[in-house]
């Protein structure tokens, strides 16, 4: 089962590679190079997370703690660099992030099938909403919050992610979850997590949280969706499937 799922991931990466090719051939050399760096860094991150979840659960929990700590560092760093401005925004962000992080860490201790299902749904949504948005996106989704999010990318990402739940249904064997319903909730929270971090950056007038991950805007830029999506699964298990 794990290797079959891994094959599905590789197929998605090939599709993503083709999408990035069409996107980057229209860009200037420097921008295209940054885009490819982001793609290959993402490829490495996905593999590290996938194999840690599948074969080394204890390592995955440690990675989750590193992700949480990295995100917290970036939230505080942005606040300090602003000269400790907008304290109310900072403390609300800290509270929301703490609650989501607790849920995310609880999520990291669940069975690997549920974690893999959730992780892959989030990754597929993130990837294809970006690819579809850059190729066919015309209408901005929330112009004042995120300049790059489009209606077409958002809808396309949802459709691909929720449809992919059918391919990943075997990961939920032995649970009471309805795959497409669970996938829809995960995607909604993943998107919400992304919007929250985008709003925080907007409030403080920064483009990126940090340069800790090559090609990405920091830990939160890369893992905000995973943290929020994982927290949703934890809430669902604790209150609805407990």
Characteristics of this structure?
8 helices, globular, 76% helix
Topology:
Elements: H1 2-24, H2 29-55, H3 57-81, H4 87-107, H5 112-136, E1 140-142, E2 146-150, H6 151-167, H7 179-204, H8 219-239
Antiparallel strand pairs: 1-2
How does this model look, in words?
By secondary structure, this protein is mostly helical. It has one domain. The chain is built from eight helices and two strands, in the order H-H-H-H-H-E-E-H-H-H. A two-stranded antiparallel ribbon has the order 1-2. Helix 4 crosses helix 8. The longest helix is centred in the first third of the chain and has 27 residues, at 29-55. The radius of gyration is 17 Å and the shape is globular. The two termini are 26 Å apart. The mean pLDDT is 89.
Strand content: under 5%
Q: List the strand order in the largest sheet.
A: 1-2
* Low-pLDDT ranges: none
Order of helices and strands: HHHHHEEHHH
Structural class: mainly alpha
Radius of gyration: 17 Å
Count of individual helical segments? 8
Number of strands: 2
Instruction: Sketch the major β-sheet.
Output: 2 strands, antiparallel
Question: What's this entry about, in short?
Answer:
The chain is mainly alpha-helical and about 240 residues long.
């Amino acid at each position: 089962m794990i290797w079959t799922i891994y094959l599905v991931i590789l197929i998605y990466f090939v599709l993503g590679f083709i999408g990035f090719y069409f996107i980057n051939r229209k860009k200037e050399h420097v921008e295209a190079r940054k885009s490819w760096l982001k793609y290959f860094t993402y490829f490495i991150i996905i593999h590290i997370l996938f194999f840690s979840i599948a074969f080394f659960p204890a390592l995955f929990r440690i990675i989750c703690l590193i992700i949480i700590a990295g995100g917290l560092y970036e939230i505080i760093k942005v606040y300090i660099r602003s000269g400790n401005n907008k304290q109310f925004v900072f403390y609300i962000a800290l509270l929301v992030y703490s609650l989501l992080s607790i849920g995310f860490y609880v999520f990291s201790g669940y069975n690997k099938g549920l974690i893999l299902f959730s992780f892959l749904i989030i990754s597929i949504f993130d990837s294809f909403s970006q690819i579809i948005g850059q190729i066919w996106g015309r209408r901005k989704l929330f112009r004042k919050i995120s300049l790059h999010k489009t209606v077409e990318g958002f809808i396309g990402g949802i459709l691909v992610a929720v449809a992919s739940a059918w391919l990943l249904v075997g990961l939920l064997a032995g649970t009471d979850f309805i795959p497409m319903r669970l996938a829809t909730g995960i995607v909604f929270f993943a998107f919400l997590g992304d919007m929250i971090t985008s709003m925080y950056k907007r409030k403080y007038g920064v483009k990126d949280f940090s340069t800790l991950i090559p090609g990405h805007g920091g830990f939160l830029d890369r893992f905000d969706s995973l943290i929020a999506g994982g927290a949703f699964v934890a809430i669902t298990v604790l209150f609805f499937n407990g």
